[in-house]
Predict the structure.
Amino acid sequence: MNLSTLDIIIILLYLVVIIGLGFWISKKAAKNIQSYFLGDNNIKWYWLGFSNSSGMFDVSGTAFYVALLFIYGFKAAWLPWLWPIWNQIFVMVFLAIWIRRSNAMTGADWIIKRFGDDKGGRMAHMIVVIFAIVSVIGFIGYVFVGIGKFAANILPWDLANAVLTNQQTYALIIVMLTTLYTVKGGMYSVVATEVLQYGILVVSCILVVVFAVKGVDYDALHQKLPQGWASFWPEWKLNVNWGNTFSQANQKIEEDGFIWFGALVLMMIGKGIFASLAGPVPGFDMQRILSAKKPWEAAKLSGFTNLVLYIPLFMMVSALTLIAFNSFMPTLQGQEKPDFEVILSQVVSNYLPAGIRGVVLAGLLASFMSAFSAFVNAAPAYLVNDFYKKYFRPHESPRHYVKCSYLTSIAIIAIGCFFGLFADSLSSLTLWISSALYGGYAAANVLKWIWWRFNGYGYFAGMFAGLISASFVPKLMAWLGNNVFTDYRELFGSGIGTLISFFIILVLSISASIIGCLLTPPPARNVLESFYANTKPWGFWEPVLQWVRQENPAFEPNRQFKWDMLNVLVGICWQMSMVIMPIFFVFGYFSYGFTALGVWIVCMIILKFTWYDRLKITAA
């Protein structure tokens, strides 16, 4: 693509402003690791909410959602449950409060408060540090692949060389630019730049939607949509059929293994309950929660993240998909094996006018830089605070730890980029992170909340078994599909296959957790009393409740389980309405759109009384 002078000026201006802002703010982060990683717990909850949503609005995810919507139509709104995206609702309703009450600096620091600082607690602590680093490296590889694929299809210069492809070279250049301010400024720079980036993203979303819907003949559009494309509600078998007009899309559906859509949704719900109860993985989402001033502000920032993220995100996704339908379809139909993940970049590069294209490019660069900087800020906290400081150099000056954070950040970035060089596609990384890696995380982290007897040894055993099985179970599934169950080869290598892998890994992990726990003594009584009295989780804590009441007869346990489950159900409906509502409106299904709008408003009203108004009481 030949970028216009205006587009180039907009992109360069964006890069200068964002890097300059990051360096200007960075002075605040240089004091100590509390300011570097948590912003001194002095950042307003709504700024953290904007920052969190900007970090989740990544170019890789946007490209993935565009590909899903293009192929599967309105049913694509269900497929983000693969992550699942509604873990954010569990965090909003109760987990953010539980996490923030700990006053920990990282997720690993939180583990010590749960299990104690004895041998079992330290084993649990160490395995969380390892998991945090593995997951952050995986996510950096994910965004590395996404930005490389996006930039190589949009920017006009060929930077391929004897070592790296054009895609990889672009990814490395953009990573290095983002690294400049992220490493230097810590949480303050990350939040400040992400708030600005969020504003750019919203402006670019509005511009793309206005351009996409201008002059659209919706009657003609609806006529050429494939069979079942505009059907939203899940059925047992996927009813989307592109027919002979685009058989490559039908082939892609078969490869994904989403034909049995009802089974897929049920498995996503089962997986989602475990993954969501486990809480956020030790990454940037956890760091935002721990950065909040108060527990109820942590809950509000999580709710605000949902409110400001999904409508603009899916406005852009649906608008880019609409342009692809109207303009890019003939090109795709002419390809023997089209790469649907490049629809986003091809639409932006070839079908947006100068000026709008520059703003959208800046917005999509912002989405990458937000996600990347958020991950990079999270990982060093675990290595520096939870490993280096705790076990090797506990009495150094604050500046010493900040400098160590610089070096650690650069090392993590280098490893994540190396991982990204060998990743096959966004889909493969998405499914590995969301299914295999999360399967290893879920079991031990659900038990840590709800069962008083669960100890550090059981946690270590479950997490270790999960990490090991996440490395071989997906490969075993693929081998079985290719060599044993050959009639079901496509199922074993599909999205349903990865969900089956999740449940296999979950069973292995939960078995190891329980065995490791029952063969070793429970955590110390004083540790359990302190954790329970401070965090107040619901679950199976009766013995600890009696111990706490011996010291404090007036202590009241958490009796919010029914309220929390009600708010989770309402919250999932609220979130889903924000996903599907912009898609309905952009594609001209206005009656459906107003129905989704009505659901959104009703859910907001219910949550106002059942969740928001009760926050200061439940979070006290």
